[in-house]
Design goal:
- The complex is a heterodimer of chains A (about 140) and B (about 140).
- Chain A has a single domain (about 1-135), classed as 2-Layer Sandwich (Tetrahydropterin Synthase, Chain A), CATH 3.30.479.10.
- Chain A is built from 4 helices and 5 strands.
- Chain A has helices at about 20-30, 60-75, 80-85, 95-105; strands spanning about 1-15, 40-50, 80, 115-125, 130-135.
- A 5-stranded mixed beta sheet of chain A has the order 3-1-2-4-5.
- In chain A, strand 4 and strand 5 (about 130-135) form a beta hairpin.
- The mean pLDDT of chain A is about 95.
- A 5-stranded mixed beta sheet of chain B has the order 3-1-2-4-5.
- In chain B, strand 4 and strand 5 form a beta hairpin.
- In chain B, helix 2 (about 65-80) crosses helix 4 (about 95-115).
- The chains are: A alpha+beta (about 140), B alpha+beta (about 140).
- The interface of A and B includes residues 20, 94, 96 and 129 of A.
- Strand 5 (about 130-135) of chain A pairs antiparallel with strand 1 of chain B, so a sheet runs across the interface.
């Protein structure tokens, strides 16, 4: 069984690789390379896989999941400029792909105990663009 | 490996009518979708791509390139068209959303290597919503 919890955060970013010249970043990322940054309301869906516990009927206590997601994601990312305030995005480009991978890596240690296993992280940058990450193995 | 999905919209009209069946049978089979004057939908298309995140760009697919392909092969071809009358593939095939999904998948596959010549990204899935309640998905390995 899959169980999904949704969180949101609002943040700004610049899509530019600091190792590349500005012209190259402009070519690669277009308007998203604007050095002053721009923002999105990100929506994150975290999906766990597991069977309901026979005693409490839950895959994972959703309060616990909420606490983990707030601690690892919302508190760090919400109302921040990702490139300037949220490592590792000072070194790697905060594309929606890399944001999904970073969220996965941050929450995985808290969500790798049985019976609930982290299945996927979906990040919407806008309603028209989202990514799904299933971990390194997939 | 990561899956990137992009959402597009187009509006088109169609009529569900199987040429091999009588008018009565068609009416029984398709109900109001068989109305001889046709009717339309705002189709919502989601194109899912599987790829590897490039370490330099942080991206698995260039969204501008994907947009160009989808606009050329699908949105511009179908938007504000009558699918039965103006899309050759539907001359003898009923433009149900099943068939529309398969056609869109095929058209994207045909243009794929021209736009993305490398091993990645690959087209993983096409999802078409005829209305918010009727949704059709076509995965990579379909027979058509």
């Amino acid at each position: 069984m899959f169980i999904t919890r949704k969180i949101e955060f609002s943040a700004s970013h610049v899509c530019a690789n600091p190792a590349l010249p500005e012209e190259e970043n402009r070519r690669l990322f277009g308007d998203a390379a604007n050095p002053y940054g721009h923002g999105h309301n990100y929506v994150v869906e975290v999906t766990l896989e597991g069977d309901p516990d026979p005693v409490n009927g839950m895959v994972l206590d959703l309060k616990e999941l909420k606490t983990i997601l707030n601690r690892e994601v919302v508190d760090r990312f919400d109302h921040r400029f990702l490139n300037k305030e949220v490592p590792p995005f000072d070194r790697i480009v905060p594309t929606v792909e890399n944001i999904a991978i970073e969220i996965w890596n941050r929450i995985l240690p808290s969500l790798s105990r049985p019976p609930a296993k982290l299945h996927s992280v979906r990040v919407y940058e806008t309603p028209d663009l989202y990514v799904d990450y299933f971990g390194e193995a997939a | 490996m990561i899956r990137v999905t992009r959402r597009y919209e187009f509006s088109a009209s169609h009529r569900l009518h199987a040429p091999g069946l009588t008018d009565e049978e068609n009416h029984r089979l398709y109900g109001k979708c068989n109305n001889p004057f046709g009717h339309g939908h705002n189709y919502v298309l989601e194109v899912s791509v599987r790829g590897v995140v490039d370490p330099q760009s942080g991206r698995a697919v260039d969204p501008a390139a994907l947009d160009q392909l989808v606009h050329d092969k699908v949105v511009r071809a179908f938007n504000h068209k009558n699918l039965n009358e103006q899309i050759e593939a539907f001359e003898h095939v009923v433009p149900t959303s099943e068939n529309l999904g398969l056609l869109i998948h095929k058209r994207l596959e045909q243009g794929w290597t021209g736009m993305f010549p490398g091993p990645w990204p690959r087209l993983e899935k096409v999802r078409i919503a005829e209305t918010p309640r009727n949704i059709f998905e076509v995965n990579g390995n379909h027979e058509s």
